[in-house]
Structures are given as C-alpha cells and as structure tokens.
Amino acid sequence: MKDLLKEENPELAQAVLVGLITRDRDEDECEISMNELERLLDTAGGSVYARMVQAKETPDTRTCIGSGKVEELKALCEGGDIRLVIFDNDLTPAQIRNLENELSADGDIRVIDRSMLILDIFALHATSAEGKLQVELAQLKYTIPRLAGHGAEMSRLGGGIGTRGPGESKLESDKRHLKHRIAALEEDIRNLESARQTQRKQREKSGLPKIAVAGYTNAGKSTLLNALTGAGILAEDKLFATLDPTTRKFTMPDGDEILLTDTVGFIRNLPHHLVSAFRSTLEEVVYADAILIVMDSSDPECASQLEVTKNLIDELGAGEKPILYVLNKHDLRTPDSAPLGVPDSTHTVEISAVTGYGQDALLSMLNDVIKAGKREVEFVFPHDKQGALAQLYKFATILDTDYQDDGAHVRAVADTKTQGMFAQYIKA
What we know:
- This protein is α/β, with parallel strands linked by helices.
- 39% of the residues lie in helices and 19% in strands.
- It has helices spanning 27-44, 67-80, 93-103, 114-125, 129-143, 151-154, 175-206, 221-229, 272-277, 279-282, 302-315, 359-371, 386-395, 416-421; strands at residues 14-21, 47-55, 84-87, 110-113, 210-215, 246-251, 257-262, 290-296, 323-328, 348-350, 375-381, 397-404, 407-414.
- It has a six-stranded mixed beta sheet with strand order 6-7-5-8-9-10, with helices on both faces. Strands 2-1-3-4 form a four-stranded parallel beta sheet, sandwiched between helices.
- Mean pLDDT is 81; it is low at 1-11 and 149-158.
C-alpha cells in the first residue's frame, strides 16, 4: 500500500478542501470559512491541492455533498494522488465511512472534518500537562465515534494530519477501556482545575487588577503581551500558535501593577468538545476584572471575527465585563483596508504590537478602565480583624481611621474590585 500521507514527512501532505453552500450558509460565508480552513491546514503542516464547493439546500445524509460530487472528488484525488480530504463542516461517522469507501477501494484516502483538523492543531501545540489532557479528552469524545474502519493507520503515532495527539494510540482498545480513560482524564482535569482555582484565589488576594487578553486566533494577543511584559510567549503568524494561558505582572506608567493573562484564541465553529474541555482555561475571561479584545485590523474579516469573539465571551458568561477594543496590526493596514467598525468607539484604540504605535494610548485607556468605579467607602473592621484592615491599606487609599468600641472605622477610596474583596466590612 502507498505510504499513507507521506507519513515520514506529514508536513508535505496535500489535501482537497470541500465546502458546502446551503440555505443557511451563503456563498460569501462559505468562501470566508474555506479561506480560514486553508489557514488551519497550513498551521497543521499541510497544503491545499484543490478546493471544491457544492451547493445544496441541505447536506446529503449519506455523503454530505451527493453522489455526483463524490465522483468529481474521487477523480480529483486520483489525479493528484491525494490521500486527505477535509470538509469544512462537521461530518457524521456514517458520512465519513461512506465517503472513504466511495473515494478509495483500498481505504488509503482519509476524510476528516473541520473540528478534527482543529483538534489536530491543538494536539500539536499543547505543551502543559493540563493542555495535553484537555486535548486528549476532546479527541476521545469527538474523534473516536468517527474513526470506524481506520484501524491500523490510526494506531500509528504521528500518522499525519488528523491523527496527532495523545489519544490516537488507544483507538484499537475496547469501548470499556476508552470510557475508563475518559473518566480518568476528567478526574485529572478536575484536579488541575482545583489547582488553577487556588492560583486564582492567590491572585485575588494580591488585589492586583486582572486583565484578560482575548480575541480571534492570530490577532496578535501574544505579541502584545510580549511587547508589554517581555513574557517570551511564542508568537507566530499561524492560527493557535499558543494554547496555554500565560499570566504576567505589568507595571502601569503611574506605578500601579496589574496582571495580564493571554488566553487561547477563538475561531469560527470552535468544536463544542474543545469549548467544554478547555472551559477552565477559557474562563480566565470570566475571572478577569476587564477584557482586552484584540483584533487584527488588517484582516478584511475583522468585524465578523469580533462577532465570533463577542459571542464566545457571552457564552462563557463574561459579556458584562468592562471591555477595551484593541485594533492591532495598524502597520499592516493600507488605504484599501476595510473600515474599522466596533461597537464602542469610546473604548477603542488602534495599535501595532510590533512597532509600538498606539501603546501609550492603550495604556491610558486601560488605566481609565481599571480606575473606573473608584469611590469613597466607609469600612468597619472589628478589633479581631485588624489583619484585614492591614490588607486594605495595600489596595485602597486610606483617608481616615477612627478606632471606636465596635472596631476601626475607616474611610477609603476604593475601586470596584477592592469593594468586592472587603464587602463584608462595608458599613451598611
């Protein structure tokens, strides 16, 4: 049998991309998504041999694209000796089996979908213990039902695009073993989530404002964090170049310190199992005091990418957080670039994380967001809670302290965050 996917050099793999125009997805939307699928394939280490688009009211239940289009696809694969086909929409296990059976009699053409490709990229880029566990869990839950008939080649580590990650060597195990593996992974992730919660509580005790840097993948989040803090995060012109969140302390121009956390990038149709498995990581935006949404202002799809980002933030329950819109890559914009449209121009700043353009304006606006909500508050600390009073001195400006019979009465200027930390001591 031919060397599957040029197995020794999977980065050389070529693929045919297949998209579908339906009554719920017009031609423009399909084109945008297919362009993104091409970038995903590039990130996974492959290249595009050809693109094929089919227009159907609804996907064909057997093959998604219909028998006539399958014949065209088969001829295309045979003409270019192509052994990888990637669909831009999710496929059912039956559709994958039917497509692979009809495309190749000897089973040497692999069919995967968009979600499987994203899972493959996450497997490639996961570096932390938690990240690897989360990827394996998502792969097992999503990919295993879609692997019937893949047998031998799927049991080989590093078998090419769509086969990477920690879960593939277990695919020939019985279902009971797989269920045990999933349960064990979920338990390990719960334990790591507990450790993450402890880290978050430590950040809470520090009293430092927490800012989540969120946005579409490849918008420049890591580059911005590197520019501000020297974090040394991998920053490449690829989708999902970084996967694990990184938190760094940053000193503002006025001397105040904040915590900046880089988060995993968002993308259209992020697989549900990834959202679920990576929820503890994505929830950094939930526990932040404010969110920097970083956008690639040079990308013609900047507006639609912002919509995807906002929807995911809302889904995570962080939509009511203060948001600062950061239009990055100003240096790549041209006179022909699309107009910049954001929902809140008063909290929007144009920057270039590479050249430093707009950084002072960004920090000034960020400072305004952090300081928002400051007001004079009166606290009462019982005599046995003087340790809490000592902590208040770290987070608020103390105006006056009056020791009375029931404790220390303190007038202080505190921001919303500090008020929440010491809410039990605020005088009614």
